[in-house]
Amino acid sequence: MSRKSITRNKIFDIARGLAILFVCIYHIIYTPENEFAYRLLNESIWFAIPFFFLLSGYLYRVEHHDLIHRVKALLIPSVKYTLLLLIIGGIYCMLFHSYTINDVLIDLVYTYLRPEFSLKLLPINMNYWDRLLYDVISPVWFIWTMIFTLPVFYIFVRLTRHSFRNLFIICAIMLALSFMLYDYSSYVSWNLTIVPLYAAIMLAGDYCSGINISERIVNSKNYFIGLTALIIHVIMYYFFGSSRAFMNELGTIGKWSVITFFIQVFIGSYAFILACRLLGKIKYVSEFLQFAGRNSLVFMFLHRPFGVIFSDLLGTYIKSGPTWQVEVNAEVFI
Hints:
Structural class: mainly alpha
């Protein structure tokens, strides 16, 4: 099977840009739980994260098989931006919220370590939790998950890239490991329990690249199939509980949500790419989304701390984080 070289594709940049905007909006705009807007934002964030893994697998090239380089490309920007913003946010909180240097250092630990580890390393009173500037839902969890997923992907990618049979077998093993890790989720961080699941998504993404599936989607004009895929995706989200398969809360059908989640990612991505193709025809929207896509890591790390500071200045809500729900009215801005 021949494999075409992959050059920069504006549709992929638009898709990355739109996906990262989903993440930003979810973390900054708050609506009452279980209303339509909440469920829409909820679905967008659960789709956006695995889509990044799928795209990462799709864009993998053999000639760039360098694990250390990929890890550096993820870790160095995360350290640089987060340290900078911890300083900015720390100074802000010291000026306006009686923060101390010790508080800033605690923020640093809890930003880079999941609570399962940080609580053992640096125990804090639970009443202190709401004082954390970035809290434990920091975007850094995504970086750690990707860093631990990459070695697994690199180990198996040469076995799966030209063989659907091998892909099927290895993905089945990965999903079974996800089942097992779910049982032991109390011992490890949930963003480590999903590593096999996301490795399987990346492997399948790489295989899709080998059969040039994105070119078929991008060149397709059958939007009826895309709309059908979107409807199926939404049905799976609402009725199979697969939206939360990337956490240790697997939804209404328990462990089987891992499988429906895996399938749902590809069905949703088909509709998503077609939608991005339409957005690519709108000049200024296309240019902005391409810019956001090329700088998705920057958006990931900038939106949350600045969102916290701006919302605090505007008095629109007290703390950032998806567990915070507030009543939204016409006077509430981002």
